[in-house]
């Protein structure tokens, strides 16, 4: 029996649904985690018990390390590549279309697809040390699927710089100044206190007003249902190149 690499859990208390994900390799995102994340976000959006959603990951050091290299290296066809990267498209589109506001708990570093998750929440609360890096170009692909979410949040100039300088980290203060994070706290305790306070406030706010507000926030992204799968096909093709395979193998060994 194959043990899935990672899991997603969800629980609801007093109108607040907390969706948490984990994988053993720095909270990277294999296909089963992506599928379950999209499903839990969609379900929470439909639930009458849910007023607000908190998206978080387990552990202390890394919020999300992006795509699972173990899965990337085993992709053998463009169809398999499309299917894998479509997992990111499904998660981002689920977050975009969810009628409930989503608070992101960003306790540590974000790489690649992890930056996309942080960008796709409606309000990200982070602590110092939650640095960011779009490393995709380093392994021969690019932040094609998460790019629209990141660019929407921080602007074209900042997104371009992050995507091109794929080897460099931007610190958490940079991410706050560019708008990726709405709040930045000195430690986990103060971050969690701020998240609890905001979630409680939103759980007692008008659900219809919040749903309408979310529509306003995401206006102009309706074409993402088509755009993100198209971007997934680009990544799915590039991941088959010799350059990318060698680069991923080198990263795994480092």
Task: Briefly summarize what is shown.
This protein has one domain: 2-enoyl-CoA Hydratase, Chain A, domain 1 (Alpha-Beta Complex), CATH 3.90.226.10.
SSE order and pairing:
Layout: E1 7-13, E2 16-22, H1 31-46, E3 52-57, E4 62-64, H2 69-72, H3 78-97, E5 101-106, E6 109-111, H4 113-120, E7 123-127, E8 132-133, H5 147-154, H6 156-164, H7 172-177, E9 183-185, H8 188-203, H9 207-217, H10 224-238, H11 242-253
Parallel strand pairs: 2-3, 3-5, 4-6, 5-7, 6-8, 7-9
Antiparallel strand pairs: 1-2
Helix pairs in contact: 1-3, 3-4, 3-10, 4-5, 5-6
Describe what this molecule looks like in 3D.
By secondary structure, the protein is α/β, with parallel strands linked by helices. The protein has a single domain, classed as 2-enoyl-CoA Hydratase, Chain A, domain 1, CATH 3.90.226. 49% of the residues lie in helices and 17% in strands. It is built from eleven helices and nine strands. The protein has helices spanning 31-46, 69-72, 78-97, 113-120, 147-154, 156-164, 172-177, 188-203, 207-217, 224-238, 242-253, and strands at residues 7-13, 16-22, 52-57, 62-64, 101-106, 109-111, 123-127, 132-133, 183-185. Strands 1-2-3-5-7-9 form a six-stranded mixed beta sheet, with helices on both faces. Helix 1 (31-46) packs parallel to helix 3 (78-97) and helix 3 packs parallel to helix 4 (113-120). The longest helix has 20 residues, at 78-97.
